[in-house]
Amino acid sequence: MTIQPAASLDVPHVSAPEPALALRSVNKILGGKTVVEALDLDVAAGELVCILGPSGCGKTTTLRMVAGFLEPDAGRIFINGRDVTELGAQHRPTAMVFQNYALWPHMTVLRNVTFGLRARGMSKAEANERADEALRLVGLAEKAGRMPGNLSGGEQQRVALARALVLEPTLLLMDEPLSNLDAQLRLRVREELVELQRRTGVTMLLVTHDQDEALSIADRVAVMNEGRFDQVDPPEVVYRDPATAFVAGFVGRVNVMEGTVEAGTLHFLGAPFRALEVECSNGGVEVSVRPEEVFLSGDPDTGNVVGEVVRRLSRGHFTEVVVDTPLGTVRSYVPADGRERSDRVGVSFGRMLLYQSGRLVGATTGTQPTVRTGKLPESAGSVAPGVSSSTRKPSSAQ
Amino acid sequence: MTTLTKPVGIVGASRRSARFAAGGVRGLLVVGLGLFILAPLLMLVLWAFAADWFYPSAFPSAWTISWWSTVLGGNHLSSTVLWSFIFAPTVTIVSAIICMPAAYAFARKDFPGKRLMMMAIFATNAFPKMGLYIAMASLFYSLNLMGTFVGVVIIQLLNTLVTMTWIPAAAFASVPVSLEEAARDVGAGPIRTFFRVTFPVARPGIIVALILAFLASLDEAQGTFLVGVPKYVTMPVQMYSLVSGYPGPATAVFAILLTVPSLVLLVLVRKHVFSSSLAQGYRLR
Predict the structure, then answer these.
(1) Which residues from A are below 8 Å from B176, CB to CB?
(2) What are the CA-CA distances from residue A259 to residues A243, A292, A325, B51 (Å)?
């Protein structure tokens, strides 16, 4: 499939002084339950922001408040600096792509796209011309006369996209746009979406529960947990420095170990493990390590701890190794061509994330993996919260 | 009726013959059902052309078309047809005007007493009609509605309330809310949304309700007889007097004439109700 650029929709990226969308302490109560609480968010013009969270976290409610289908119980919503909190959906400069596309089954593809323009009083000839342009943009110009029921899921999705884009919205809203597509198509449409967004320069707010999707397409990811944003950051930052234990567990995978901090030193099982230079109160600490930061060595004496290999799972270009250690079961991602076959291994940890009462208090800088050769010193890591010397590109866990 | 007996020798037969037997049973069922529906109609047609037909002969012994000329030539037909076709559309339209907003409200809005109201509408069909009519007649006398056009329309409306509320309510409820939201999202107001999106998508169900209401009005005899006679005599009311005053074949002719509008309607709307392209559209959620 090809997407042809349309000249008139090719708006250059201009950063406006005013954010395209601003949420200010937005609250929503549904059925006696606080679904969305004290939400703040700024989306700059031309930006693609993903709201990522598990089902029931309030992300769709948030999107529906921005679209105008729900009114917040408290807080304000601004679009291009204008307060739209009390404005109905039909008066907002937003356009939405629904999860099930919500195409009108009794209208042709063309009429689905022209409907909004006609409702805004545009002449039929001009509306048809604009719709034709939008359909060309999504590569469906030759399907204009079809009924939506005769299109494939991917084509329906693109009609829904054209229907939204033709209105040249200030803000394009997408509710789980890829969840109804099969796995292969999803990957392709995902790239097309990014391409389209770059080409049209439209500001996008996208809701998804798929962390892979959010990390790969968003300029910034807003991770939502029980009605609040735990973190709003670029994907690399969200992956590398998850602000809360929830984010660490939800975005990618982590090994979680219980430790204690005593006088600036991290202790595991009562024994000192690494010296910390971070503001960290004494007491229990939750230590999270990404599987790609867990290194295995064939020599049990070289690592931080000794482990027994329970399982090796081939994951294609890498192998997931499940290891039983005194600190609990740990998962490690090792290269698929690893010759490591022994059952007793030395386990060493790279970058560690430290959480106290769910909040990130610091991270040890990544140690170089010297797995197969040298023995790691007992106190290898220095600590700097939010800063990392690691330049490793985050690879997704799934 | 046809009796359904299992073919002898099916036990121990090959799977293929068992499947053949199952197909045979299914065929017999279809034929049986067809006879059950069509046989009375066939009898009616035979009666309409019978000059002599006595028990136990299977068919009339002599044929005639004189009953047709009796009915068609009589002065009772033309005015009853006229009244029938004045009342039926009037009642259908009034019923639609009253019931459609209620149906939409039942489908889309939540309000206190919703279930109770739906049951109350249903209850109009739960009681014996004649009892209801007698009770209403006394009310009609005091309101001077007896023997009036409005009185007949009101009494016929009763028969259409349930179908005109429940069927469109189900049709509206089956229109996904997201279709309406999508219309509002692109800038359509509530009225445009209803007439361009909700109504067209719900249309097959609404057409069915309109037809049923039209036919209910066309076939209504008891209430119309009670309220309308002697001024407003519709076809089914006329048939009542024919049954007592004329031999059977004349009634048969009249009954056949009464089924004509239903058949014509069915043929006319077949395209809208069973259209496959629309049916496909509904697979979109």
Answers:
(1) 100, 102
(2) 19, 20, 14, 105
